[in-house]
Amino acid sequence: MDGVARRLVERDRAVVWHPYAAVGPGARGPLYPVASASGVRLTLTDGRELVDGMSSWWAAIHGYRHPVLDAAAHAQIDTMSHVMFGGLTHEPAVALCETLMAITPEPLRRVFLCDSGSVAVEVAIKMALQYQTGRGRPERGRLLTIRRGYHGDTSGAMAVCDPDTGMHHLFTGLLSRHLFAPAPARAFADPFEDADAEPFAALLAAHAHEVAAVILEPVLQGTGAMRGYAPGWLARVRELCDEHGVLLVADEIATGFGRTGELFGCDHAGISPDIMCVGKALTGGYLTMAATLCTEEVAEGVCSPPAGAFMHGPTFMANPLAAAVANANLGLLLSSPWRETVRRLEAELAAGLAPAADLPGVADVRTLGAVGVIETREPVDMAVIQPLLVDLGVWIRPFGRLVYAMPPFVTSTADVATLTSAMVEAVARTTG
Ligand SMILES: *Cc1c(COP(=O)(O)O)cnc(C)c1O
């Protein structure tokens, strides 16, 4: 690292907090100053270029500094960056909601724009509870979910994250007590039988009288597991929710916008949720924005007495700058051959990561859509594997026992090969 980079890291270490990180003497692992990013490459201040395998956490699907997205941001900033959304509206927000309506399953009819994924989940939970109250069932105040889920870091969302690997033990006084069924046992490509969903069905049947909604990540559990599950299982959950008058909330924040090979995870099962959350790739990784969509039936329940309106309204709701970039981003996505692209990435990730399956320190290698995962037997040592990956010319950010890539859709065959060979080599040299 050169002098400029070292000084920036020192200044950072003095005052800045990073995600899921300690500060002070407990701060661990390296920190890399980025000077710029373009296409699928991050350029560090010392001039090194890294092939990005993370899409900035599922978001930058078209890569960095895309000319169309840059132009949309410039045009909007010259018009207005932000105005409040109470009592005012604007073209970027209306157009975005219309597009979301058009591309999501038909029964979803209303869009609430939020500032981040976690907030979209909070909004979904509040909608579900207000709906049940509005329909005269205020006793239905709990949520039911599956283990190994991840739904965000705010308190409502944290309460439905996996109770063991999530943060429940740290915040017991704050978090509502919800119901947790086992994670689906069958992998994505495995055949599904109704009996597989029996533990879920039994838990729901026993508690339906007090459950407002089931919330889960459709077909791919992201941050909590990086694991796909059988679409038939999701279809069965939809049936069971209908049987018991319980809403289904699909958290598509990671799975949305093509990442799993369909536009939305629910599309694999041919189902429609009552409430859907999208985020992450919504603005192509440019700005923070998310959305919560619901059916007309849910909207009517929410707007019934006693509340009469939906009780939420962030300061930066429907930020025009984010909405304008989101419109450009969805335009790019929908006019691209995204399905073929994701299929190609899936095949290339699978082929490139396959050699890892023979390594003694590796428990599993799997791919679903443009997500490739090496699961190790022991947690990786970030202080060792992170610099090794950077030396190999890639930006891959493992956590726990998961070394995974979800590259931008614009990644070339050669760059996918760089990512996968670096992942296999880094795992080979640091495990087993
Ligand atoms: C990332 C994520 C969230 C939280 O989104 P933020 O924008 O980080 O608040 C919620 N649900 C899922 C499935 C996610 O992957």
From TrEMBL:
Keywords: Aminotransferase, Biotin biosynthesis, Cytoplasm, Pyridoxal phosphate, S-adenosyl-L-methionine, Transferase. It comes from the Bacteria. Its EC number is 2.6.1.62. The modification N6-(pyridoxal phosphate)lysine is found at K280. PROSITE patterns: AA_TRANSFER_CLASS_3. CDD domains: OAT_like (cd00610). It catalyses: (8S)-8-amino-7-oxononanoate + S-adenosyl-L-methionine = S-adenosyl-4-methylsulfanyl-2-oxobutanoate + (7R,8S)-7,8-diammoniononanoate. Pyridoxal 5'-phosphate binds at G117, S118, D251, P314, T315. One of its GO terms (biological process) is biotin biosynthetic process. It holds the Pfam family Aminotran_3. One of its GO terms (cellular component) is cytoplasm. Substrate binds at W57, Y150, K280, G313, R397. Its cofactor is pyridoxal 5'-phosphate. Pathway: Cofactor biosynthesis; biotin biosynthesis; 7,8-diaminononanoate from 8-amino-7-oxononanoate (SAM route): step 1/1. The record marks Y20 as: Participates in the substrate recognition with KAPA and in a stacking interaction with the adenine ring of SAM. One of its GO terms (molecular function) is adenosylmethionine-8-amino-7-oxononanoate transaminase activity. The keyword Transport does not apply. It is found in: Cytoplasm. The keyword Transferase applies. Homodimer. Belongs to the class-III pyridoxal-phosphate-dependent aminotransferase family. BioA subfamily. This is Adenosylmethionine-8-amino-7-oxononanoate aminotransferase.
